[in-house]
Design brief:
By secondary structure, the protein is mainly α. The protein contains ten helices and no strands.
Length: about 170
């Protein structure tokens, strides 16, 4: 989309998966003008896929609440957007709202069995919620979709060992 084409940084690193599934490896953050252009596109056409780029831009700027708002509006116009749901799930993750992220990701993987980012992020969310039993098959599927991903392999090892992703978040598994 517009966001990736301009070389913006991916959303902030809230966990392991964001390192492995960045849209672009650039660290450049979107400018105020670029945000305005995306906001204008979305304002003119709420069903435009630009809502995903705008949400990603907000996440890159550390504004997950804005990403949630634009994601909810975009998904009300285009409820079948898997990419929009993954962006919304990343926004929930940035706020440590694991249960909400899981709900969005379940919607994605039920309709798109080839969503590498969806399966990997769902596996990470399940690990953060200490649901190792369910994280294991989800991460195995993510590895089948992307066998070269060291990120998925690391998550898979943690699931097999019953290790949480981040000890500081152990009490926040919501």
């Amino acid at each position: 989309g517009v966001f990736a084409a301009r070389g913006f940084a991916a959303p902030p690193d809230f966990g392991l998966v964001s390192k492995g599934f960045r849209m672009v490896e650039s660290d450049r953050r979107p400018s105020a003008q670029e945000i305005e252009e995306l906001e204008d596109l979305v304002r003119r056409d709420p069903a435009s896929p630009a809502f995903i780029d705008l949400g990603d831009a907000y996440l890159a700027l550390g504004r997950p609440q804005d990403a949630l708002r634009v994601g909810a509006t975009g998904l009300s116009a285009d409820p079948n957007s898997s990419e929009g749901r993954v962006m919304l799930a990343r926004a929930h993750c940035a706020l440590h709202q694991w249960k909400e992220a899981q709900g969005e990701l379940l919607r994605v993987v039920k309709v798109d069995r080839n969503s590498r980012g969806g399966f990997a992020l769902l596996g990470e969310v399940l690990l953060r919620r200490s649901d190792y039993e369910w994280a294991l098959p989800v991460l195995q599927h993510a590895q089948n979709l992307d066998p070269t991903s060291s990120t998925v392999l690391t998550l898979l090892r943690r699931a097999r060992a019953g290790q949480i992703v981040d000890r500081r978040l152990q009490r926040r598994k919501a």
